[in-house]
Write a structure and sequence with these properties.
Helix 5 packs antiparallel against helix 6, helix 5 runs parallel beside helix 10 and helix 11 packs antiparallel against helix 12. The termini are far apart. This protein has 19 helices and no strands. The mean pLDDT is 87. It folds into two domains: 231 residues, Methane Monooxygenase Hydroxylase, Chain G, domain 1 (Up-down Bundle); 107 residues, no CATH class. It is an all-alpha fold.
Amino acid sequence: MEGNSSNIKAEDDLLGAQAGLNLMEQGVTYKDYLQLEKILKAQKMISEEQKKLVHDEHLFIITHQAYELWFKQIIFELDSIRALFNTVELDESKMLEIIKRTQRIVLVLKLLVDQVMILETMTPLDFMEFRHYLSPASGFQSLQFRLLENKLGVKQELRSKYGQSNYVKVFGKDPNDVELLRKSEEEPSLCDLVQLWLERTPGLEEDGFDFWRKFQNAVRTMLNQQREVAELESDPTIKQGVEMNIKKSMEQFESVFNVGLHEQLRVRGDRRFSHKAFQGAIMITLYRDEPRFNQPHQLLQNLMDIDSLMTKWRYNHVMMVQRMIGSQQLGTGGSSGYHYLRSTLSDRYKVFLDLFNLSTFLVPRDMIPPLSKIMKSRLSRMEEQKALRNLKNTAEDED
């Protein structure tokens, strides 16, 4: 009996293994699913073709191909986030998904920032061995990186000139690339869509809570209190310093209270958001502890993280280029190399610059305008739950 049982079990195992093999034959393999045949054969080393194999060229190719794959993933996430935002009124149930996807972009960018260190294991002399093979290829010709910038909201008029020309010029030989760039410039960027969302921040309505009027009153009260304290200062040097600081604060706040001044700063490129979107960002930041503003505040933090990491990536890239080729005037693609890249580190390339500057316009917690009962209810989840219950009751009545 025991022998028969063993034989039956062995036959069952054999049949199970055969069934698994048949399933694999019918389905897709790991190699085919990931298209590894194409990916792993995509490293074409020019030095090898020239019969002068340079070992580090392989690393150079792999690293930049990895960059391009991650750029593709970021664009994929960006397009999905823009699609969720591109509605008349954002469904707040989608906010968690938006936060998750922006956080994913943040983590990918952290990976890209660290990836520069791998390239830095290559010495300048190592790079010099195959650099001449690259010309006129250049990282400036990365279509995906330009699309990524445009979809985030980098404005063409704020870009540094590439050899005194529009950045699109380097893609002029490929009409499909030019068309993709044109489309990415004309479509609403993430920055554009975030502004429209911020403009709808509950509490900004002048016939409702009228946050902006209350906020201006709070700022004036704060500055008046600071003046009173300054008047009591007996040391003329300290008093003068305090009064100068108060004057500067007044000028800074006036730049956001005065719509005309705000618009002038936008034209100059020192601000990005519309005046009302700026109001929404300040309100969300001040009342971030209110349930309905928790997730919007987290999103604003993620957007700043994306901007910071883009700047860090550019900075690491600049430092690596300087390390590899010094301050040579020409990069491999004909740009001014290090000097051009260094110019991209300015605030002109920060898409969410206004979020970084919000701290300039905050007031102490005890001076934040108190919420009315109605506003407190709007910023709690109670109002949404009540609306859902009413909707459910209506549906049940119809049934």
